[in-house]
Amino acid sequence: MARSLHKVQKQISKKHGGKPTALHENSRHAQRLRQAGAREDKLARIATAAARSNQIYIDRVAYFQDALAESTAPLSESQLQNLVKEFIGRDDTELAELRAAQRPGRPRSKAEENIQNRIDNESKEFKAGFWAPDVTTEDGLEHLKRWGGSWGGLNTLKFCRVVKDGDIQKSSFPPKSLS
Q: CATH number of the domain at 5-16+24-171, please?
């Protein structure tokens, strides 16, 4: 039995001759339409939430791709750590502007809170192991330069965990806790 809204509508309209008023409120066909509509809504919500959570990683890899567009040689560990520090501090000027515009004694703005929370989360991640594309090899750098900007294309890249005070460890895609 069909479960998508379009197919259910098509089957029911075929059976009732295309008349939208042919159904009463609690008929089994009306219930099928409601269930199919609710399922479509649920699937759309899930897809939107997944895309929103994936966007963080897409933006991260896009930043590294833009920063290394002119680079021809792979980065050393210290250069990669510096690039991660630049990534974490990418909104420092905007944060300073928001703080300067804030009146004394007033609570922080929502934008300032969001930026500060993101910086805090990324700093914590950097201490434990910041998930980033592995650009310490020629192969990793070339794959990053050829990446098309989509979530599906990330599986062709190599990734690593960059630790603030330590070394670089290989990681996997998609990012897990400390893979």
A: 1.20.1440.170
Which among 54, 64, 69 has a CA at the least distance from the CA of 130? 64
The single-letter code of the amino acid at 143 is H
- Which pTM does this prediction carry? 0.77
- Region 35-57: mean pLDDT is 92
User: Cβ of 136: how many Cβ atoms within 10 Å?
Assistant: 18
Phi, psi of 130 (to 5 degrees): -80, 125
Nearest to 132 by CA among 74, 64, 73: 64
Q: Strand 130-133 vs strand 159-162: parallel, antiparallel, or unpaired?
A: antiparallel
Tens digit of pLDDT for each residue in 52-105?
A: 988 999 999 999 999 998 888 998 988 999 999 999 999 999 989 988 888 888
